[in-house]
Amino acid sequence: VQLVESGGGLVQPGGSLRLSCAVSEYAYNVYCMAWFRQAPGEEREGVVSVDKRRTTKYADSVKGRFTLSRDDAENTLYLQMDSLKPDDTGMYYCAARPGDNCDSYRDYEDSGYWGQGTQVTVSS
Question: Could you report the per-residue pLDDT of 70-90, keeping only the tens digit for each?
C-alpha cells in the first residue's frame, strides 16, 4: 500500500490550502482512510476519517473549516483547509488501514499504512 501526500506550505492565518493524498487502488476502494497531523512536541492526532461508504467524521477542532473529498478516477483524497489558524500548523499525514470503525484513530497507529507527510505552516 502506498500513500503519497502533497500540497503543504506556508500560509497566513485565515488562508487556505488543499492537501492531496494519492493512494494505491485497492486500499483506496476497501480500506479506512484518514488524515492526521502532528504539531511540534505534540502527539499525532486524527483530523478526519472516511469509510468505504464515504461517511466522514471530523475532529471538533476542524469542523466547518476542513473538508475531505475524493477523486475516484485518480484514487486520491483531498483535504481542503480553510480559515486556517496558527494552531493548525504541523506535519499532515494520510493513512489507510483494513477493518472497521474508521474513526478509531489509534488503530491506524497499530496496523495502518502511512505516507511521508507534508508540512503545513500557518503564520503571518
Answer: 999 999 999 999 999 999 999
Residue 122 has a pLDDT of 98
* Cell numbers that stand for 10 in this block: 506556508
The answer to whether residues 23 and 41 touch, using CB atoms and an 8 Å cutoff, is no
Sheet of strand 3-6: strand arrangement:
3-6, 17-23, 76-81, 66-71
CA distance to 33, 53, 62, 104, per residue, from 7 (Å): 18, 26, 18, 25
DSSP state of 27: H
Contact between 89 and 122 (Cβ < 8 Å)? yes
pLDDT band at 52, cuts 50/70/90? confident
Q: Which residues, 6+ apart, have CB-to-CB distance to 41 below 8 Å?
A: none
DSSP 109: H
